[in-house]
Amino acid sequence: MTKRQTRTPFPDLDQVRELPVQLDYVIPPEWEDRNGHVNVQFYLTLFELGGWKILEDNGFDEAWMQRSQYSFFDLEHHLRYLAEIGVGDRVTAYNRVVGKSDKRFHGLYLIVNESRGRLACVLEYMSAGVDMRQRRTAPMPLELLGGLDRLYADHQKLSWPPPLCGIMAP
To answer: Going along 8-103, which residue ranges are E strands?
Structure first.
């Protein structure tokens, strides 16, 4: 067995809230599993519900994607469950860009259980830009790349280092 590497600590709630809220949602009853908490599949649903907002807030909404015929596909996810979420709990989610290239971006999606005052989950992801006409990875249009450059620079100024899993390459 190998010695476990020391990980960057998870941010506290005040640190997470340095980012804008991407989603504010109350968990519905049909999300409960046999263990009495939110089923694992719905953590990805929360990501789907709020994950696009980081791009939309910067002008890259569905209409832009239709015009440009450019979008993103996720390549990889790493989920870390930190605290339970139950039916009726109110959650908020936040998105942080932690790396980028001309074709990909690497981010963290942080889910806070507001009802219980806990960071509930960190979803680390890698997304690739895709030319939708060819459905193949392609360099980002310059306006999109510039927007991600600004986000990345802003997120680098946060008071906390990103708690990365250490196995995803940007």
So the answer is: 21-26, 70-81, 90-100
